[in-house]
Amino acid sequence: MNTLDPRQRLAVAATSLRSSLEQYQAAGIQVLPAATRAAAADAPDTEVAAGHGEAGAAVNLPRLREILGDCRRCRLSQGRTRIVYGVGNPDADVLFVGEGPGRDEDLQGEPFVGRAGQLLTDIITKGMKLRREDVYIANVVKCRPPQNRDPEPDEVASCEPFLIRQIELVKPRVIIALGKFAAQTLVRSAAPISRLRGQWHDYHGIRLMPTFHPAYLLRNPGDKRLVWEDIKSVLRELGTVAE
Ligand code: URA
């Protein structure tokens, strides 16, 4: 899972290093011996694995939620009401990934329950002829960013191991990345969503289809037809007939 770009790798390493140093401090250790300092400075390569390692130890989704705990791994925890972990079928064929909780999700602790969420539910039920409980829904970050700003790279780096493990545990056949932020994060691309959408991408061996975010569709309903094209591609991939 070591496909982070240099900026993201640095953010992961910095977060992980800070967390290690905080643990030393909590244990009453104020000064590190030279060898430990050298090992800590060497951390970047191993810390990506270690960051995932904590989440990677989870054998199922409830256990992963326990490991996430009352998360304080990044500053987004300071402004959140509730952690929005993820919801749905642990064996889903389709896993949706959004950006991060909005106001409604922050209050209710469930992804996509506001107006954009209602539109996503329509896409699932009316478009895909599935129930919301049939799919799995998660976000890149699990706490609401202040004023719904984009999550910062270090916040993504702290949270992403949990999304990666959610994906590994659900093992969906298809991931649908909702909107620019989720698509660019998962695909590791700076290309605009208008270019990413409608094309299949590979996410560590899983087919990934980016499409427009439901919140964008609320503002630009004319682009719903493009999302329907993307959903039809997904249904074809799943072997489900779409007219
Ligand atoms: N937007 C997102 O990206 N995720 C949610 O859970 C809600 C709105």
Tell me the β content.
5-15%
Strand line-up of the largest beta sheet: 1-3-2-4-6-5
Average residue pLDDT: 86
Bound molecules: uracil
In DSSP terms (H or I, runs of 4 or more residues), the helix count works out at 11
Largest sheet: 6 strands, mixed
Uncertain spans: 19-51
Give the end-to-end Cα distance, rounded to a whole number of Å: 37 Å
* H-E order: HHHHEEHHEHEHHEEHH
Oligomeric description of these chains: single chain
Q: What is the 3D form?
A: globular
Structural class: alpha/beta
The radius of gyration is: 19 Å
* Record field, number of beta strands: 6
Helical residue percent?
A: 40-55%
Structure characterization notes:
With 243 residues, this protein is an alpha/beta fold. The protein has 11 helices and 6 strands. The chain has helices at residues 6-26, 34-41, 44-56, 61-68, 103-108, 115-127, 153-170, 179-187, 193-196, 214-219, 224-238, and strands at 87-88, 94-98, 136-139, 174-178, 201-203, 206-211. Strands 1-3-2-4-6-5 form a 6-stranded mixed β-sheet, sandwiched between helices. A hairpin with a 2-residue loop joins strand 5 (201-203) and strand 6. Helix 1 packs across helix 3 and helix 1 (6-26) packs across helix 7 (153-170). The longest helix is centred in the N-terminal third of the chain and has 21 residues, at 6-26. Residues 19-51 have low confidence and may be disordered. Uracil binds next to helix 6.
